[in-house]
TrEMBL record:
The chain crosses the membrane at residues 7-24, 30-50, 57-79, 114-134, 141-161, 167-184, 204-224, 600-625. Residues 421-537 form the Transglutaminase-like domain. One of its GO terms (molecular function) is peptidase activity. It comes from Nocardioides luteus. Residues 543-589 are annotated as: Disordered. Keywords: Hydrolase, Membrane, Protease, Transmembrane, Transmembrane helix. This is Cysteine protease. The keyword Transmembrane applies. Residues 14-393 form the Protein-glutamine gamma-glutamyltransferase TgpA N-terminal domain. PANTHER family: PROTEIN-GLUTAMINE GAMMA-GLUTAMYLTRANSFERASE (PTHR42736:SF1). The keyword Nuclease does not apply. It comes from the Bacteria.
């Protein structure tokens, strides 16, 4: 292959790879992904060009070296002060993301900021550039290198997002260039009798036909029958490795914020304690701690997939600083929340429809967000003093009688079917599901009383299980409870009358922005016909000013026809919103369980062991490549080829020790240069034997070849014995002889 042909192949591969990487436009934020991918592509092409004619293992070593030595500068720039250098932290990050980065990319909601995940396009670029150009240089067949470019495009699509609308033009251009490259390589493989001018004419005609076909495909392709509106991607096939159900429901711990509650240990009351401070948000903005969209008969809890929304929006996913939120169609506001001394746990207070978030203090890498419920979770837990800034849409739609509810499924199943009769009674037979839901709310507000269970109302416990709500609504008694019972029951009854509902725990921002325990409330959200959720404020179904009667009659019966779970205890279950329980859990989790490695040993293994293993792997690869090359030269090919290989082995062995010879000289001239070096006195005799045996009247026998290789081994041993141990080690791991020889100066 001529240099011009190699340049054409390299250019077309580079263009195809660049077009393929543009498919990551919806997956990554900004253009850093393209820089990483294109840099990897260029480095891969360069490695294949430098290693042309060398064993495949040489290319593998080159790829490994490029990945770890230059990976920090290409893919990790901006992460740390020394991230552009191959220091232990950089090498460890590259190694970790080369294995686990694929999963992180697929489980993070796009657009991804990049950061360490830029390792993915860098790896793809290195592999595609090196493999594709190596095939173009070593194979006459037209198809294999083009298939590598197609494989890169397929990989980008599988790792990308489902919306293919923005990539139609890129796909058409990619196809046109790929067909053009196939035509160019196909013409090289044939011997044409035509003149150069006619060959140029055919090339131009072929390129024009390719562009025309691509244009027709771009315009007419979307009109063809049987085309799916979305493409198949890995992101839609995997399950996120996160289960929000492992955290207790924050609604079950609502009583910790009430006036009569105090921690048993230190008489601490959160009712008038500062939980967190909100700045930047308008007064009256709702800040939600969590939205709970699943009821299992015991508690309302946040579900990882409640089934009310298709796709990844209804799951808790890793997110970057910027979110592509389909619910962000209201007024955009910017704000900051600072966590106080008396708030903690995993639930992150946020307004609705988050579009940007930046943490100052907490471990942002563990943050998960549910687009469908506007709920955030920080598994590493919020700590006092943590703060985070955000941008969000705060459109707070209200429920009206003329609102049309969602006609699809309900967030809850048959667990609360026992309240169907009660829902019909409270609704009063309205003319629409929404009218019935509002009638239920009015009934609860007009007949209900409010109590947190403080003296003298200790008989009204916390909890919102089926049994607790059955007692709450028992005939002959009185409705007595707080936000926990009212919001839980309101959501259940709304679902029974045909309006999908969920419970939200949070607060409304006041004039000073300080949220205390007394500001925490639970409200209900009802799903509208367009899929959005409208707020039904707690004041619509609960009267906080009406206490229960002290001498009220005892309930006559329970409104239930089935066995229900036992009542919850007065003390609410532990929640991540309870600062006391959170501290207890953290202390319990901090206790060592079984044998653990000392911290200093872990640090040594991380910062010393990993680089040593990496260096050992590279050195082992170089030594293995030389052993494999020597074995191939000695055992493969004709006797004459094996003789020639023995002499090349002698020259390469000398080059590893720093003894270079002119490439264009004869064997005897090369031998005279070698003989001046210690340990190579026998080189002239070996060169003479090589020429005599190769150019003899008869072909050398296998026995003569074996005897010749024994002398090659003796000369190699003599050269090794004349050097120090350090020189022998350095020669063994010297990759110089694996690179094609040009002109080497004598040292």
């Amino acid at each position: 292959m001529t240099k011009q042909q190699a340049a054409v192949d390299g250019t077309l591969l580079f263009l195809l790879g660049t077009i393929a990487f543009l498919g990551f436009d919806d997956t990554y934020a900004g253009w850093t992904y393209l820089i990483a991918g294109v840099a990897g592509l260029l480095l891969g092409i360069l490695i294949a060009f430098v290693g042309r004619g060398q064993p495949v293992v040489v290319l593998a070593v080159g790829l490994l070296a490029a990945f770890f030595v230059l990976g920090g500068a290409v893919a990790l720039h901006g992460i740390g002060d020394l991230s552009f250098l191959p220091v232990p932290d950089t090498v460890g990050t590259l190694a970790d993301n080369s294995v686990h980065g694929w999963k992180r990319l697929l489980t993070t909601l796009p657009p991804v900021d990049g950061g360490a995940l830029l390792t993915i396009p860098y790896i793809l670029g290195l592999l595609a550039g090196c493999l594709g150009f190596a095939m173009a240089l070593r194979m006459k067949a037209a198809l294999p290198p083009v298939l590598v470019a197609f494989a890169l495009l397929a990989g980008v699509i599988l790792l990308g997002v489902q919306d293919p609308s923005k990539t139609a033009l890129l796909g058409a251009l990619f196809g046109a260039l790929a067909i053009t490259w196939l035509c160019i390589r196909g013409m090289r493989a044939r011997t044409l009798a035509s003149t150069g001018g006619r060959r140029l004419s055919r090339t131009a005609i072929g390129a024009a036909l390719c562009l025309g076909a691509a244009g027709l495909a771009f315009l007419g392709g979307p009109l063809l029958p049987g085309l799916a509106p979305e493409r198949t991607v890995l992101r839609g096939e995997i399950e996120p490795p996160f289960n929000v159900g492992q955290y207790p429901s924050p609604l079950a711990g609502f009583r910790v914020y009430t006036k009569g509650y105090q921690t048993p240990e230190d008489d601490r009351r959160l009712y008038e304690k500062d939980l967190f401070t909100v700045s930047g948000l308008p007064e009256g903005t709702r800040v939600r701690v969590a939205a709970m969209d699943s009821y299992d008969g015991t508690v309302w809890r946040a579900a990882n997939d409640s089934g009310v929304t298709e796709g990844p929006e209804d799951t808790f996913r890793k997110v970057s600083s910027t979110l592509r939120n389909p619910l962000a169609d209201g007024k955009q506001v910017k704000g900051t929340i600072t966590i106080g001394e008396d708030f903690g746990g995993v639930w992150v207070p946020l307004p609705t429809a988050l579009t940007h978030i930046s943490f100052d203090g907490p471990d942002a890498d563990s943050f998960r967000y549910n687009l469908a419920t506007s709920t955030g979770v920080l598994p590493s837990s919020l700590k006092p003093g943590d703060s985070y800034s955000f941008t969000a849409s705060v459109d707070d739609a209200k429920v009206g009688e003329k609102s049309e509810p969602w006609s699809g499924g309900s967030p809850i199943g048959d667990e609360a079917a026992q309240f169907q009769a009660l829902a019909a009674e409270y609704a009063g037979g309205g003319d629409s599901p929404m009218t019935n839901a509002l009638a239920v709310a009015e009934k609860l507000k007009s007949e209900g009383t409010y109590t947190d269970g403080e003296p003298p109302n200790q008989q009204y416990p916390a909890g919102h299980s089926l049994r607790r709500l059955a007692d709450f609504t028992a005939k002959g008694g009185q409705l007595a409870g707080n936000d926990e019972q009212y919001a839980a029951l309101m959501a259940i009854l709304a679902n029974q009358v045909g309006v999908p509902a969920r419970v939200v725990l949070g607060a409304v921002v006041g004039s000073d922005g300080v949220i205390q325990g007394k500001d925490m409330h639970a409200w209900v959200e009802l799903r509208m016909s367009d899929g959005s959720w409208a707020t039904l404020d707690w004041s619509e179904f609960m009267n906080t000013e009406k206490p229960p009667q002290q001498n009220a009659p005892q309930p006559e019966e329970l409104v239930t026809g089935k066995v229900v779970p036992p009542p919850a205890p007065v003390r609410p279950p532990a929640t991540s919103g309870d600062p006391l329980d959170e501290s207890v859990n953290q202390k319990a989790n901090s206790r060592p369980d079984g044998f653990t490695l000392p911290g200093w040993l872990v640090a040594v293994l991380k910062y010393v062991g990993v680089p040593i293993l990496l260096v050992a792997a590279v050195c082992g690869a170089i030594i293995g490549a030389k052993l494999w090359r020597r074995h191939r030269r000695r055992t493969r090919g004709t006797p004459v080829a094996r003789l020639s290989g023995g002499w090349r082995e002698t020259l390469d062995n000398a080059r590893d020790y720093g003894v270079g010879v002119p490439v264009g000289a004869t064997r005897r001239e090369q031998a005279s240069v070698l003989s001046a070096a210690p340990g190579l006195d026998a080189a002239p005799g070996l060169a003479l034997l090589t020429d005599t045996t190769m150019f003899g009247e008869e072909h050398p026998a296998d026995a003569e070849v074996e005897a010749f290789w024994e002398q090659v081994g003796s000369l190699r041993t003599s050269l090794s014995d004349s050097r120090t141990r350090w020189q022998r080690i350095r020669a063994a791991i010297n990759p110089l002889s694996l690179v094609p020889a040009r002109v080497w100066r004598k040292r």
